[in-house]
TrEMBL record, chain A:
Domain of life: Bacteria
Upper lineage: Bacteria, Pseudomonadati, Pseudomonadota, Alphaproteobacteria, Rhodobacterales
Keywords: Membrane, Signal, Transmembrane, Transmembrane helix
InterPro entries: CHP02186-rel_TM (IPR019088)
Record-given protein name: Transmembrane protein
Originating organism: Yoonia vestfoldensis SKA53
Signal peptide: 1-17
Automatic annotation (TrEMBL), chain B:
Keywords attached to this entry: Cell membrane, Membrane, Transmembrane, Transmembrane helix
Name the record gives this protein: Probable membrane transporter protein
UniProt membrane topology term: Multi-pass membrane protein
Keyword RNA-binding: no
Pfam family, one: TauE
Gene Ontology annotations for the cellular component aspect, listed alphabetically: plasma membrane
Subcellular localization(s) per the UniProt record: Cell membrane; Membrane
Taxonomic lineage of the native organism: Bacteria, Pseudomonadati, Pseudomonadota, Alphaproteobacteria, Rhodobacterales
Residue stretches in coiled coil: none
Length: 249, 305
């Protein structure tokens, strides 16, 4: 809805003064057996129909969001001397991966109301509703903290280099523990903390080769996959025994 | 070298997994335990999702147990008759265990129950074995090392007697079936092969010689673990074959080494080492429950909507 609204707003302003032209270092991420994470370079330029206004500074924000998924956040508490999961908060939708890179401190280039509208910063990108526990904020904070520790959530202020208010560039590193899906890359151009142009593209992240084959087999031919696993186990067990018997002779 | 695991969806160091499998394999060959109670917590620790860790470790147990049992077959330290009788009980027990497990999961807090199960059973069995084998070592060192006569207890007064030639026993089939059932139930609830319960039960309840116990225990673990692997693969799709492969390469080699170490050691020394290991794992799990965790929050996928 909000995005649609934004697009309509942009369409209503045919003569946009500043527009984004974008490039990516790669248009897909292939998860192979030796996948160790990936670095995506997002680069682009601001095309102008008129000279840039001198009274305000240009801001660039780049976000990459992995597919969203529901998450349950549980909290432990001490009961009868032992630590057990007691409270839980259900988060309707949290991106599996979310990186934000900005050209300047986020508060300087993005106003709160614009952040709310476009859901740019990490807390805004997480949607939780119907929290039963009183201090549900602590649970969302914990979610962000845990994901940040795993490099799955990244907030990199000043990681976008902006050259002569025209060329921008940022390298975003994606860790090895990625989930599959379409990753949305969004670029926001701001002036005076207001978003003046957005651009969106998608990078598919997919398992390929052996990874793809095993994953499909496990889900589509579960019985055969199970037998395959057992066959490998039995074969390896027998082989080791046979090899050791030969070695002893 | 890092390997991306297709089902676990994480990237892990291949050599770490090989080493982990190797260590657990050595223990498996030495003591006749599948090693599930060791490898599953270790996999959690290196960041494998719990469901995948539990399912995949059962597959690795199959491999190391086969490797171990073949070595034992060559030394004729396996009692296939006893193994078969135990397995009958084991299959009945694991079917009951799965029903109990699903019932507990519906109630919630199944993780806590599994952990408490670990602490109680590992603690009790570990202490029992530790004290007993310590006594046995003291006795053998004493000047009047009189060989103990096997006492006749209630086990010998039950009907349906059967001859177990390799074990040198002539006892009723009821106690082995009961032991198999108990182990099957616990194995399904705790997600382990059950060797660490089976081994002491065979020694102390059935009165089997320690050397035969290990091979026989391994033999029956193969079937229990194989059955569980198929169950996990078909219902949850959580068996990661690549993870299993890395673990079992280390595991099968380790099991061969372990069997050879085990043969050179005295029975009571083996038992006291197993007891110490069981107590260490028990202590670790107990501490996790008692000490305040550094991160109080944890993330779970999905959940109720």
């Amino acid at each position: 809805m909000i995005r649609l609204f934004a697009i309509l707003m942009l369409l209503a302003l045919p003569a946009r003064a500043e527009q984004i032209v974008l490039g990516l270092s790669q248009d897909e991420v292939a998860i192979t057996v030796t996948f160790e994470g990936s670095e995506i370079i997002v680069f682009g330029a601001v095309s102008r129909t008129a000279p840039p206004p001198q009274d305000s500074a240009l801001g660039v924000i780049i976000t990459i969001a992995g597919p969203s998924e529901p998450v349950t956040v549980r909290r432990k508490a001490q009961q009868m001397g032992i630590w057990v999961n007691t409270d839980a908060v259900f988060v309707n939708s949290a991106p599996s991966f979310y990186a934000v890179a900005t050209s300047a401190p986020i508060t300087d280039i993005l106003r709160e109301v614009e952040d709310l509208r476009h859901r740019i910063t990490i807390p805004r990108a997480i949607r939780s509703a119907g929290a039963v526990v009183a201090d549900s904020v602590a649970f969302t904070e914990a979610l962000i903290r845990i994901k940040t520790d795993q490099d799955l959530y990244q907030m990199r202020q000043g990681a976008v280099t902006l050259d002569q208010d025209t060329l921008f560039r940022s390298a975003i590193s994606m860790p090895a523990n990625l989930t599959e899906g379409n990753y949305d890359v969004r670029i926001y151009l701001t002036r005076n903390g207001t978003v003046i142009d957005t651009y969106m593209t998608t990078i598919p992240v997919n398992k390929v080769g052996l990874e793809r084959w095993l994953y499909n087999l496990a889900h589509e031919q579960a019985f055969i996959y199970g037998l395959l696993s057992l066959a490998i186990a039995i074969g390896a067990g027998w082989l080791a025994s046979a090899v050791f018997t030969l070695l002893r002779r | 070298m890092y390997i991306y695991l297709p089902i676990a969806e994480v990237s892990v160091n291949a050599f770490l997994l090989l080493g982990l499998g190797g260590i657990v394999g050595v223990l498996s060959g030495m003591f006749g335990v599948g090693g599930g109670f060791l490898i599953t917590p270790l996999l959690f620790f290196i960041g494998i999702p719990p469901a995948v860790a539990v399912a995949t470790s059962t597959n690795q147990i199959v491999a190391s147990s086969i490797s171990g049992v073949l070595a034992h077959f060559k030394r004729k330290t396996v009692d296939p008759v006893m193994g078969g009788v135990l397995l009958v009980g084991g299959v009945i027990g694991s079917a009951i265990g799965i029903v109990i497990f699903n019932y507990l999961r519906a109630l919630g807090q199944v993780d806590l129950l599994v952990q408490l199960c670990y602490v109680v059973f590992l603690g009790a069995i570990g202490m029992l074995m530790f004290v007993e084998s310590l006594r046995a070592i003291r006795r053998s060192r004493g000047p009047s090392a009189v060989p103990q006569r096997r006492k006749h207890n209630w086990v010998h007064n039950l009907p349906f007697k059967m001859k177990f030639r390799v074990s040198g026993l002539y006892i009723s089939v009821i106690p082995p079936i009961m032991v198999g059932m108990l182990v099957g139930i616990l194995a399904a609830v705790m997600g382990v092969g059950g060797g660490f319960i089976m081994v002491p039960a065979m020694i102390y309840i059935l009165g089997m010689p320690t050397k035969v116990v290990i091979g026989t225990s391994l033999l029956q673990i193969i079937f229990v673990a194989g059955f569980t692997t198929m169950l996990h693969a078909t219902t949850n799709q959580t068996v990661d074959v690549l993870l299993a492969l890395l673990l079992l390469i280390g595991g099968v080699i380790g099991a061969q080494v372990g069997t050879r170490i085990g043969v050179k050691m005295k029975a009571e020394q083996l038992r006291i080492l197993l007891a110490i290991m069981v107590l260490i794992v028990c202590g670790k799990i107990a501490l996790d429950l008692l000490i305040m965790p550094s991160e109080l929050y944890s993330l779970g996928a999905g959940g109720h909507s």
